[in-house]
Specification:
single chain; CB; 2 domains; DNA recombination; about 300 residues; 14 helices; mainly alpha; 2 strands; two-stranded antiparallel ribbon; globular
């Protein structure tokens, strides 16, 4: 099979069978088409699946390492995205009985560990208190911040919410997250109160839970045209973070991290947090185990024999 045809079929698999998001499909298309273009530029005018071998991948990775990035050469983490896409492509080919290179032979580049960004209790309090509740924008923004911290929703999940989707009496609702994984999320009393107040303040009948204010809103405007975008929520979070003078470059995802951290510090188990966040693999949730580190000193201080008072 020609490589180009294989890529098309793999992308269709992601879209139809894996229910991958449009962004995921777009990214995988980009990574694999760069490989296709590289092979063609290397003299293989019509690459086949058999042209993907260890030597080809070695040269392709060398090529990637020399490509310019936003700041100098392409970062290792970005190069890793290409490798992951190729491995996923090869795994799909193997499952469909194509004779291709084993994906396990390709190693994903290791990246330096980055510290997880989250806000502590004081910072969360300062952030949530920034929007002015006497304005319709402030009330909406406070509801957004409360909901993100309360539920740990991804920004894309929050954007997609409709006003009739949230049950404010039971304070829970269902969402479909990454990879089509469904889960139930729970709303805190504080968040439910703010969301209820925000919804009651609206006089429109538009479906989206969070809509933009300002600009032209006429009878020709559709619900989707008025739905607040992910970029808008990212901007408003950064705005209030700066306003609260919080020394963290926080994003909506930081509030997701903060929610998980808060639960674990309060005694929640890792498996429950995994379900609340919608992680497929417990290993993904384990990035939050850093929060137990602060308890280790307390445990050592309290229980270790060498810390007990004794006369010398």
């Amino acid at each position: 099979m020609k490589l180009e045809e294989g890529i098309v079929r793999f992308l269709e698999h992601l879209e139809i069978e894996r229910n991958a998001s449009k962004l995921t499909v777009r990214n995988y298309r980009h990574y694999l088409e760069v490989l296709l273009t590289y092979l063609q530029a290397s003299g293989i005018m019509e690459p086949t699946l058999g042209d993907i071998n260890q030597e080809t991948i070695r040269k392709f990775r060398l090529y990637l390492s020399r490509l310019p990035g936003l700041r100098g050469i392409m970062k290792s983490v970005t190069q890793g995205y290409y490798v992951i896409a190729i491995r996923s492509f090869l795994k799909w080919l193997v499952r469909n009985d194509f004779q291709v290179m084993q994906p396990e032979k390709i190693e994903v580049p290791k990246n330096a560990e980055h510290s997880l960004k989250f806000l502590d209790e004081d910072q969360i309090g300062r952030l949530l208190s920034q929007p002015i509740l006497s304005t319709k924008i402030g009330l909406r923004d406070r509801a957004i911040l409360e909901l993100l911290f309360s539920t740990g929703l991804r920004v894309s999940e929050a954007v997609a919410l409709n006003r009739d989707q949230i049950n404010l009496e039971s304070r829970e609702f269902g969402v479909v997250g990454k990879g089509g994984k469904a889960r139930v999320v729970f709303v805190s009393q504080q968040a439910a109160m703010l969301i209820d107040r925000y919804i009651k303040s609206r006089v429109d009948r538009y479906k989206p839970l969070f809509i933009r204010f300002g600009g032209k809103k006429d009878v020709a405007s559709s619900d989707e045209e008025l739905r607040l975008s992910a970029r808008s929520i990212q901007r408003l979070v950064k705005h209030y973070v700066r306003q609260a003078k919080i020394p963290v470059d926080a994003t909506p995802h930081t509030l997701r991290h903060s929610m998980a951290t808060d639960l674990l510090r309060s005694g929640a188990d890792l498996r429950s947090v995994q379900e609340l966040l919608g992680h497929r693999n417990i290993a993904t949730t384990q990035i939050y185990t850093h929060v137990t580190d602060s308890r280790l000193r307390e445990v050592h201080q309290k229980y270790h024999l060498g810390n007990r008072e004794k006369k010398i």
